[in-house]
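Page header: ASSEMBLY MODEL / three components / 874 residues total.
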Amino acid sequence: MSHHLVAFDSVSFCYPDGTEALNGVSFRIIHGESVGIVGANGAGKSTILMHMNGYLLPSSGIITIGDLQLTKKTRQEIRRKVGMVFQNPDDQLFMPTVFDDVAFGPLNLGLPEEKVRERVDEVLKIVGCLSLKDKPPHHLSSGQKSSVAIASVIAMQPDILVMDEPASNLDPKSRRQLIEFLKDFEHTKVIASHDLDLILDVCKRCIVIRDGRIVADGLSHEILSDRGLLEENNLELPLSLQRVAYGNDKIMEGERWTT
Amino acid sequence: MTFDEEYFNIGYLDRLSYRDTVVHRLDPRGKVIATMIFVITVISYPKYEVIPLVPFFIFPVLLITLSDTPFKFVLKKMLIVSPFAVFIGIFNPLFDTRAVTLADGVLISAGWISFLSLLIKFTLTTSSALLLIATTSFPGICTALQRLGVPAPFTSQLFFLYRYIFVLMEEAMRIVRARDLRSFGSRGTDIKVFVRLIGILFVRTVERAERIYNAMLSRGFRGHIPSMRQLRFTISDAIFVFLTIAFLSALRFFNITEMIGRFVQELAV
Amino acid sequence: MHMADALLSPAVGATFWAGTLGTIAYCSKKLKENLDEKLIPLMGVLGAFIFAAQMINFTIPVTGSSGHLGGGLILAIILGPYAAFLVMASVLTVQALFFADGGLLALGCNIWNMGIYPCFIAYPLIYKPLTKNSTSNGRILFASLLSAVIGLQLGAFSVVIQTLLSGKSELPFGTFLLLMQPIHLGIGIVEGIVTAGVISYVRTVRPELLESIPASRPLAAGISLKNVLVTFVILAAITGGALSWFASTFPDGLEWSIEKVYGKAELPEQEHGITAVLKGFQEKTAFLPDYTFKKSENEAKQEEAAPSWPGVDTGTSLSGILGAVIVLGVIMIIGVSIRAIRRNKS
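Prediction written out in full:
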C-alpha cells in the first residue's frame, strides 16, 4: 500500500517566544509502518508529535494526515485519525474512573451508549485491564495506568498511534509487557523516546532529530548501531547492542536485528 | 498532623469507599438524602436536649458495622476534626451558670447540659459525613448530586478535583519532603520559602492543566464532558430511605429514651 | 474557620444553603454562557492545587503557630470570580466529606463565608480597582493584603452571625466578635502576603502562564459595586424573610435573637403553626398517660427552658437518664453482635 498516512513537507515551527523548534522537517510515513523518533532533550521530538494531532500548527510547510491537509478547520477531523498517548498517564487519564476515561473518546465521537460499552470492554481486554474497569485511576499502578491510557486512545480506533515516551514511568516488567504489546499491535505507530532499546524492539524505521532538523532517517537496526551518529546526537548505543559492540560472546542475540 | 499522615488518611478513606457491602451497594442518591435528613433532624433539637438524642447513635453504629468500617478510624478522625465546635461550645458552661437539678440533690449548671448536647450533635453530624464518604465512592456522590439537580459545571469541577487531588498531593508531598530534608528538623518554614513552594506547585499545576487540555482535545473534547454514569434506584434503596425517614421522625416526635426509662421504672415499682 | 453543624439550627443552615446553591447555579450559568473550554481542566486542577497547598504548613513569624493558604482570593485573581467561586465550593465540599470539616449542613455556610466574600467582594471591589492590571509588586502586595483581610473579616463576622442566629452557643455577641475578628486579622494578613507572593513569583518565573490563562476578563467586567450592593440587599431581604418564616415554624433556632429583641424567649404566635399541631399530636398519641408531656415535650421545653429549667420534674430527668443508659446499651449490643455475625461469615 503506497497510501501516505503522514506526510511532513518542509515543516517549520517557531514558539511565540522565538525559539525555532522545527526547521524544514520532511518525512513520509505509510500505512502499517512503525517509526521511532529519537534525539536529545529539546531536539524537537515532542513538537513534531504535537503537530501530528494539530495541537500545534506549522509556521510554514504542509502537513498531510491521510488525505487531509492540517489546518485549523481540519484539526478536529484529524484528531479522530491520530490517537495520541502522552508521556505522563496522569495527564492522559483525567476522568474519575477507568470506564469513564476509556468511554470519553468514543462518546465524543457520538457513538451510541450500547456501542460505547462494547468498545470499552473490547479495548480493556486488549490491554489486559478489564478487571480495572470501575477503579479510579489513582488506585492503579504505573504500568496499569499506561495500559489504560493506551486503551483510552485505541478506543477511538485511530488510523495511527502516536506515543510520547511510553515507557518512561514503568518498571522493567511493565516495560517489557508494553513492548510485547506494541510488537503485536498491528497499527501504524510513531513513538518518540529516549529508550532506544524499546525503539529497536518495536520500530522498524527510525528518525533522528537534532535542533529541529532531521539528521538521519532509515532502518532502526542500521541507525541505532551507528555509534558515531548516536553520540553526535547526545545518544548512545542501545544496551542490547552495547554487549555486541564490546565483544560479548552472546553475539547470537544479534540475529534478531540482522535478519 | 503531618502532610504524609493527612495524605494517607484521605487515601485510606477513599479506599474504604470502594468496598462492596450492603451499605456500599445502596444508591448514592438515597444515602445523600438520608444523611442530609439525619443531620437536619439531629440539629433541630434545642440546645438543652440531651436525652432524646441518645437513640440517634443507632445510625452510625448500624452503618459502621454493616459496612465493615473500622470503628477506631472513624473515632480517630472525629477527634482530630475541627475543634471549632468544641471551642465555641466550652463557653456555654461559663456563661450559662443557672443551676439545674439533675436528680434528687444533684445540681449542675445549665451550660454543661447545652455543652453536652452540642458535643453529641457534633459527634452525630461529623460521623454521618465521614460515614457517607466511607461507604460511597466520591464519583458516586458527584453523580448523585448531578442527578439531584446540581448544575453540571459544578459537578464536573468535583470530578476533576477528585481525580487530581491525589496526583497533586503527591506532588506537594515531594516538594515538602525536599524542604524538610534540607531544613534539618526545624519544623515548618518561614513565609518566604513557603511562598516559593506554593509558587512552584502553582506553576506545575498550570502546566499540568495545559497537558490535560491537550489530552482532552486529542480525544475529541469540544467543551462538553460526556457522561454515561448510571444509577439504579431499586426497591431496597426506596426501603432504605423510607425506613430512615420513618425512624428519624419517630425519634423526633416521641422521646423514646424517656418512655423506655419510665417504662422500666414502672416495672421496678 | 469552618462553621460546624453542631452550632447551627436547621433554619440558618438551610437559608445559607439556599444562598450558596443559588450562587452556584448563577455562576454555572455565567460560565456556560461565556465558556472557554480551556478553563474546565484548569479549574479542576487548580482546585486540587488549593487542596494540596492547604496541607503545606509554614511557621507564622513571631507567634510560632502554623498557617496555611485559604485560597479564595488567589483563585479569584487567576480565574475571575465566577470560576473561582465554583472551584472554592468544590474544594470545601471535598473537605467537608474527606476531613469532615464542619459537616454537610454547615457546608452551605462555609461556602458562603469562604467563597462569596473573596470572589464577589474582595476581588472585584478591592483587588481589581487597586491593581488595575499593574504589575508592580508593591501594588499587588497592598491590594492583596487589603482584600484578603477584608474578605476574612467578613467571613469571620458571618460565622459569628450564623452561630448567634442559631442560638446553640451562649457566647455574647461582643465577646464572640472579640474572639473571632483579631484571629482572622492575622489569618488575613498571612493570606494576603502569600497570595501576593505567589502571584509575584509566577510573574517573574513564568509571566506567560498568567497571560495564557483565559482569566475570564470579559466575565469579571459585569461586577460593579452597585450590582453587588443591590444583590446583597435582595439577598438580605430574602434571608430575612426565610428566617422569619422559619422562626414562626421552628422557634428553637431563633431563640437567642428573639430573646434579645423581646426580652423573653416566648412569642405569642409560637403556639400556632407546626408546633401547636405537633403538641396536639403528641398529646393524643401518648401511650403512657402519666408521662409529663407538658414539661419534657421538645418544643414546650425549649420555650420554657430559660425560665423554668431549674424546676424540671426530677422524676422525668431520672427516667430520661435511665432510658438513655438502656438505649445506649441496646445500641452497643446491636453493634457488637452485627460485627460478630459479619466476622463469622467472612
